[in-house]
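Lab meeting, item 3. Inverse folding demo.
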């Protein structure tokens, strides 16, 4: 796995679990070229919330509110959110909670016009890299049973089904598949 920019929310408080490593942002920051454009990841900021909410509206039947994102960025010390920019335009975002040695992906989305270009894969890989950097040994997420496209992507990146949450999604009562990946193994395989 390649190392990219650390995911760390813009927070006003001085302490964060991320700050235990010195020089983390500069060490992990990386941009790459995609379709002749610059693809870059950076920490989500409060001023990004309107754009993120527009992506939420495109991607989800029950989108998070601006207030929910504001709370994640300013009050939740477990939260780490990033945006994915293509030539400076936010085209996707992802977030996770880091609790002890486990990361839980809360949401991940790519704008509709940019889907099908492997940008979601790059975004998820970035979240996994950041989780490894932050000390996670495992990473988990939930996915709708009907979302087979996402399930295939998650499986490709090392996630395996580990359970079912009955009636998890409030909009239609759909079940969620719980998926896990063991990051330590992935990190060790990446070093070989």
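The presenter then showed the designed sequence:
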């Amino acid at each position: 796995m390649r190392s990219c920019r650390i995911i760390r929310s813009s927070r006003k408080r001085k302490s964060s679990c991320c700050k235990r490593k010195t020089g983390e942002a500069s060490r992990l920051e990386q941009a790459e070229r995609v379709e002749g454009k610059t693809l870059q990841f950076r920490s989500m900021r409060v001023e990004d919330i309107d754009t993120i909410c527009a992506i939420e509206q495109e991607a989800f039947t029950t989108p998070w509110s601006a207030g929910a994102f504001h709370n994640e960025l300013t009050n939740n010390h477990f939260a780490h959110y990033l945006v994915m920019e293509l030539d400076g335009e936010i085209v996707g975002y992802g977030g996770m909670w880091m609790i002890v040695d486990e990361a839980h992906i809360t949401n991940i989305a790519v704008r509709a016009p940019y889907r099908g270009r492997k940008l979601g894969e790059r975004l998820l890989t970035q979240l996994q890299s950041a989780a490894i950097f932050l000390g996670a040994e495992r990473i988990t997420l939930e996915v709708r049973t009907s979302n087979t496209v996402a399930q295939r992507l998650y499986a490709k990146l090392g996630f395996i089904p580990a359970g079912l949450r009955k009636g998890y999604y409030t909009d239609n009562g759909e079940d969620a598949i719980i998926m896990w990946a063991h990051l330590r193994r992935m990190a060790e395989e990446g070093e070989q």
